[in-house]
Amino acid sequence: MPPVPLDLLARTSVVIPTLNEAASIGKVIEELPKGLLEVLIVDGNSTDGTQSEAQARGARVVVEPRKGYGRAYKTGFLEARGAFIATLDGDLTYPAERVGELVGRLDEGRLDFITCDRLTTLRREAMSGKHRFGNFVLSLTTRVLFGVPVRDSQSGMWVFRREVLKDLTLTADGMPFSEELKVEAFRARRGRCLEVPIEYRVRIGEAVLSTWSDGFHNLAFLFGKRFGRPKGTRGELYGAPQP
After folding, report:
1. Which CATH number do you get for residue 204?
2. Which stretches in the chain have pLDDT values below 50?
């Protein structure tokens, strides 16, 4: 793919939620392409120097004391200034260097939303057997309940046009936010969404997931969203790009 036009990067915000990721967040930021509008760290009151590590590399840090993976992203989306938003984790598992390529692919293909698939090329050491099984069950359930053609419903690396948020109703404050975002995006912009395989790496630091409780919670959320009463307000996370 040709080099990504600098004007696209200059309109891109990268949002990264963190909690005690001092050992890895610097490396993540350094892998990102140069020329981004901003790197926005949404930090859950880390106590290990994560915030100072990020700030030393030019990132903007927003502290979100309310707990939850989804809550961090909701805050990040409202704070982000770019017309394009990219996300990934702060533990070095995702290939941050591919953000520019994915933004370019979004623009070139006139797409609205790209999610990244960790499972197609997954190396055994990068994910435990329990997590692989859980991802399979959750992704299969997402496809069956919502007709959303994704192989990896739990991936945390996405690139999308900010305007997509106008059409999404995002209610989850916890881990189900990832699957909910994909369901909402693929249903709202069907035909303009894509899943792209990526390399997924062994994380730095200890995982904060509780395999079984988080897995069952995510599964219950999918059934509740499909068969329960609608909740939330459509478009509440959308805000116009800031100059």
Report:
1. 3.90.550.10
2. none
Tell me, what's the pLDDT at 204?
82
pLDDT at 212: 62
Which residues of the chain form beta strands (DSSP E)?
12-18, 38-43, 60-63, 84-87, 113-117, 158-161, 193-197
| Nearest Cα to Cα of residue 209 among 130, 140, 145 | 130
User: Which range of residues forms the domain containing residue 95?
Assistant: 6-227
What is the per-residue pLDDT for 87?
A: 98
Q: Is 209 a member of any domain?
A: yes
Task: Write the CB contacts of 8 (distance below 8 Å, at least 6 apart in sequence).
Answer: 84, 100, 103, 104, 107
pTM of the model: 0.93
Would you state the pLDDT for residue 63?
A: 97
**DSSP helix/strand/coil, 132:** helix
Domain count of the fold of the chain:
1
- Whether residue 165 is contained in a domain is answered as yes
